[in-house]
């Protein structure tokens, strides 16, 4: 049942990242599998997602193809310093969003005003993980590390769906912060058995973000217009915390040249929220004035109802000395329904397959594809007022990576 040095490392690494269209803003799945490979190892790759997300606003108008295509790279280097100590660097883009509404619907402002256009969101994050590992025996690996993270986000709200916030702009600029990770792994190389549990901390960002209410002076409500004007002249700090998470990774040889694998992931989205400083001030004014019933303390620009749980299971098979392949099935719970209009899907099912070609024993080239059935969702604004329904959507993900053992 024993696999050779490179095959046991790469048979399960041929698919696009498990979470390319997961709950909340999750993208990469934050795997540390490369750090757990034997010896010295380098890997780099890219995943691309092509989603098709459409629905209807609460008036029955169609909102077509609002989710943008996106790609994200990853790279990792692991060095086995000696028999007991290892060090690794992993770069990925763990969270993100890319969406824009167009056409004739309540998520688009088509009137001749200064803030014409569609509601849109763009979020980019980068993680650089420095990991140190201690192997007291060949079976155990205890590891921990520091995580450097950048966040850059833009949200533009347009259309009658957002009422007083029609025309609102929010831009964070790039902000930097740090967190940590820790975990433990156990392996029996002779049967390609490997199990690991990794915890990642939340990472807090405090941002002096740009905010503007472009509808100031245009709503017809003197009190509201004056409040917007005052808020446009003020500023304060916005707090944004990316969530804590736990990954469980399992693999085992089940017959000659064949491994079974599984990944389980939990992300604490239920405690995630984005309430920009001035957005929060105006939402409190609206709530206390009774204009947003049940929200006397205001509301968030983005939040989620539930935590995310996802799972992927599959089989990898060595076909011959140069070729290998795998298949997988994945499920994601979503982060609760209803969902934000900035990401109107709830969870998914997917199937995937991948192949790899190894010209020599110490390196490979892999490629994979996944098809996603995206969950139907009711879309709401930050105030949790009904905005629309999105159903029968899907996505296709592609991945390419290379690995080298040295």
UniProtKB/TrEMBL annotation:
Keywords: Cell outer membrane, Membrane, Signal, Transmembrane, Transmembrane beta strand
Subcellular location(s) of the protein: Cell outer membrane
Family: Belongs to the OmpP1/FadL family.
Signal peptide residue numbers: 1-22
Cellular component aspect of the GO annotation: cell outer membrane
The protein, known as: Long-chain fatty acid transport protein
Highest taxon of source: Bacteria
Membrane topology: Multi-pass membrane protein
Alphabetized GO MF terms: long-chain fatty acid transporting porin activity
Organism this protein belongs to: Acinetobacter kookii
Lineage: Bacteria, Pseudomonadati, Pseudomonadota, Gammaproteobacteria, Moraxellales
């Amino acid at each position: 049942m024993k696999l050779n040095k490179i095959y046991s490392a790469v048979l399960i690494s041929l698919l696009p990242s498990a979470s390319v269209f997961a709950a909340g803003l999750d993208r990469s799945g934050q795997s540390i599998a490369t750090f757990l490979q034997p010896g010295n190892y380098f890997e780099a790759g890219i995943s691309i997602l092509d989603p098709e997300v459409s629905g209807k606003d609460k008036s029955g108008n169609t909102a077509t193809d609002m989710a943008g295509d996106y790609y994200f790279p990853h790279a990792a280097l692991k060095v086995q310093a000696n028999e007991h100590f290892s060090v690794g660097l992993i770069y990925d883009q763990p969270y993100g969003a890319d969406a824009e509404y167009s056409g004739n619907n309540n998520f688009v402002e088509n009137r001749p005003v200064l803030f014409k256009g569609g509601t849109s969101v763009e979020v980019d994050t980068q993680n650089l993980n420095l990991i140190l590992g201690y192997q007291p025996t060949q079976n155990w690996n205890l590891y921990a590390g520091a995580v450097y993270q950048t966040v850059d986000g833009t949200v533009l709200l347009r259309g009658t769906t957002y009422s007083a916030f029609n025309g609102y702009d929010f831009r964070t600029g790039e902000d930097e912060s740090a967190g940590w990770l820790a975990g433990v792994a156990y392996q029996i190389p002779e049967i390609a058995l490997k199990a690991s549990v990794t915890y990642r901390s939340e990472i807090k960002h405090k941002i002096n973000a740009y905010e503007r209410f472009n509808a100031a002076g245009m709503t017809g409500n003197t009190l509201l217009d004056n409040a917007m004007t005052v808020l446009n002249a003020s500023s304060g700090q916005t707090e944004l915390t990316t969530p804590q998470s736990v990954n469980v990774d399992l693999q085992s040889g089940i017959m000659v040249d064949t491994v079974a694998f599984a990944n389980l992931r939990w992300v604490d989205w239920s405690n995630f929220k984005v309430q920009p400083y001035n957005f929060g001030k105006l939402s409190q004014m609206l709530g206390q004035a009774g204009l947003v019933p049940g929200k006397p303390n205001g509301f968030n620009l983005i939040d989620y109802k539930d935590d995310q749980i996802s799972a992927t299971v599959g089989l990898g098979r060595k076909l011959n000395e140069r070729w290998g392949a795998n298949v997988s099935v994945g499920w994601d719970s979503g982060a609760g329904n209803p969902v934000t209009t900035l990401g109107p899907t709830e969870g998914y099912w997917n199937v995937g397959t991948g192949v790899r070609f190894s010209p020599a024993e110490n390196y490979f080239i892999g490629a994979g594809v996944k098809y996603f059935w995206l969950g139907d969702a009711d879309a709401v604004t930050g105030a949790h007022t009904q905005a629309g329904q999105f159903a029968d959507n899907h996505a296709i993900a592609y991945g390419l990576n290379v690995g080298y053992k040295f």
